[in-house]
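Worked example 3 (structure in, sequence out).
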């Protein structure tokens, strides 16, 4: 097991006595198992396997999947802000996405907008009424994002505000017995695996020693397609999810950054960083606490890039109760 000691690497590049010296990005190309961090969440590990698929096989797989998968552009939602006040008692907040009902005559005017819902509990005795939220969604939209007051065992104050829709800058498709939700938008269950994908899953499972029941496929059409900083940390993926990422097509740089310590207040300026060029036929396994302690992205590039397919095998579980948010925010 190799250790990527970012602190020692930073000491080589700049004075150690500086309280905040920006960490350089470590560039990792060689095959191997890497322990990238240890912490309260556990050990974060990467396994990098360039040439996992031989060139000729990778070429054939890429051409088949590029032509035959049901690629589409997913619409996500950025949740707007809200403001609520609990007048007395304890406060419990819940968020939900409200989309226009198909029969809603206002749907066309609203377009692809959602609503953020916040409920301030004004009395402990009102908790059962939280279950009725979904029954109010369509009616609440008709109020023009106004603040409503419900009398249901006690008083709630409910604030609605628009959630802007946006299209992901890439194409995707989903395979698995269960639906998958991220960025307030759900990909429906699709148990009919393409035979090439079924064969790849079996091969990845044999090499990795892990089993997977789902697959998120991404198609980056050119260098302008991308995925923003995020972690694959949706509650449906369970604790310490294992992600097996197979790259096909043009090489793109896979960037990682460590989540900052609590005292940094969400500032990523000085965190540890990695860069991994993922070439045609390369398999990358993210294991342990990687999704808990690190984020990753594929940034836009402003020079010519050909298409790239990224297959991310994972294990998904039935969705937890509504209202539990992802640990590290939406992706775009």
């Amino acid at each position: 097991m190799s250790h990527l000691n970012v602190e020692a690497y930073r000491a080589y590049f700049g004075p150690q006595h500086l309280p905040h010296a920006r960490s350089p990005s470590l560039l990792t190309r060689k095959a191997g198992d890497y322990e990238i961090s240890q912490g309260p969440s556990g050990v974060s590990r990467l396994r990098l396997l360039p040439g996992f698929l031989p060139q000729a096989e990778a070429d054939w797989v890429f051409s088949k999947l590029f032509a035959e998968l049901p690629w589409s552009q997913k619409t996500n939602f950025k949740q707007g802000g809200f403001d609520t006040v609990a007048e007395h008692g304890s406060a419990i907040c819940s968020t939900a996405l409200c989309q226009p009902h198909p029969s809603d005559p206002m749907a066309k005017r609203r377009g692809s907008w959602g609503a953020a819902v916040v409920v301030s509990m004004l009395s402990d005795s009102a908790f059962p009424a939280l279950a009725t939220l979904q029954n109010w969604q369509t009616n609440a939209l008709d109020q023009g994002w106004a603040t409503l007051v419900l009398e249901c065992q006690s008083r709630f104050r409910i604030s609605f505000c628009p959630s802007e829709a946006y299209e992901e800058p890439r194409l995707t498709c989903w395979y698995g017995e269960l639906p998958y939700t991220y960025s307030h938008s759900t990909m429906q269950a699709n148990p009919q695996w393409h035979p090439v994908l079924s064969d790849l899953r079996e091969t990845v499972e044999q090499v990795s020693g892990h089993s997977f029941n789902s697959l998120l496929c991404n198609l980056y059409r050119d260098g302008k397609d991308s995925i923003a900083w995020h972690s694959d940390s949706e509650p449906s993926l369970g604790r310490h999810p294992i992600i097996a990422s197979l790259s096909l097509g043009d090489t793109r740089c896979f960037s990682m950054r460590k989540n900052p310590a609590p005292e940094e207040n969400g500032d990523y300026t000085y965190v540890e960083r990695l860069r991994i060029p993922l070439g045609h036929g390369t398999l990358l396994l993210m294991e342990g606490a990687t999704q808990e302690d690190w984020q990753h992205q594929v940034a836009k590039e402003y020079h010519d890039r050909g298409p790239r397919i990224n297959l991310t095998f994972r294990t998904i579980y039935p969705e937890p109760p509504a209202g539990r948010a992802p640990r590290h925010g939406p992706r775009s």
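Notes: The radius of gyration is 22 Å. The first strand starts at residue 2 and ends at 3.
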